[in-house]
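Protocol step 4 of 5: obtain the predicted structure for the target chain.
Materials: sequence only (see below). No template structures provided, no constraints applied. The aim of this step is simply to have a reference model before the mutagenesis design in step 5. Sequence pasted as it appears in the construct record:
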Amino acid sequence: MNENNEKVISNVNSKSKEKRNVPNLRFKEFCDEWKDKKLNSFCTINPNTENIKEKFIYIDLGSVIDGCLLTEKIVNYNNAPSRAQRVLKENDILFQCVRPYQINNLFFKLTNKDLQYVASTGYAQIRTENYPLFVYYLLNSSIFNKKVLLLCTGSNYPAISSSDLGKIRTYICSKNEQLKIGNFFELLDKRIRTQSKIIKDLEILKKLICSQLFLKISNKMQLSKLCSITTGKLDANKMDKNGSYPFFTCGKETLKINTYAFDCEAILISGNGDIGHTKYYNGKFNAYQRTYVLYNFKSSPIFIKYAIDHVLPRKIKEEMQSSAMPYIKLSTLANLNIPYPAINIQNKIIDILNVFQKKLDLEISILKKFKEQKKYLLANMFI
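Step 4 output (structure tokens):
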């Protein structure tokens, strides 16, 4: 809504829809029909670029998450992977061609202008002279990605060629509407990044407070003496998005399933994947075979979870340095020594950390709502 309490985005479906080629939602000042075009008619796919320099920042598959470059790793030319061939310029778009159902595309901005950026051939490099932000969000829309999946080949690592990508027919609007849509989604992404930073800062603060609270506790107790430890029995592909029960795997997201194997108060620990990530749940649920399930507690499970969150990351780091451990062993958890003070001290620690956790849960739920809103808008503001 704007200052005059007027609708900024209109629902086309609520009106008489005389023209076919228009999205379900659009800014109310636009009414022209969108034009059907091939992607390569308004974008250049894998443009010819200059030679790769002696040192550069390499962007490989897995380097991009949620449209952000995770690390800027400097690579020497002699040590560079052979697939490092896409020399990037400002406002280029990287489209992930391998396993494109994982939307990890990147709208490229130069953050280190002293170095060259080079991407893997696992990405298609897309360049457009008009409004690249619009094209970037078009490529991230669910409608466009459905078209991509129809052209993918391979079962284990489905992929689309850059040539086939360029031939996909899509719809584009007037330049003014492109500009407004691109700027709108950029603002939404900035808000999502701000929300993510709020969460990260809260997690750091909670970790520091947690360290201070546990610092002076000398009494320790083995985890196996405070609870029973088992694992789930199912493969991850047993999930059902319409299931009735939570399904805990080794990812941070909780899935759904139609059957349950546990009905208790539990702590769930990812044995690999997002290794060491913990969750608390009370009720009926099921679990993946590499997810540890802690139950039958001899003390407060909330306190035990906080204590595990304090000591487990360090233990995982130690074991990975000595043996490159890709997963948590049962013996590692069973023998984990956690701080174990008197009950009254436990309750005080719970009260303090619950305040931070409540705030974290609120901010995480806000982030989830923003992401759901973006997903909905991407599905309805493009055709």
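Step 4 remarks: The radius of gyration is 25 Å. The mean pLDDT is 91.
Proceed to step 5.
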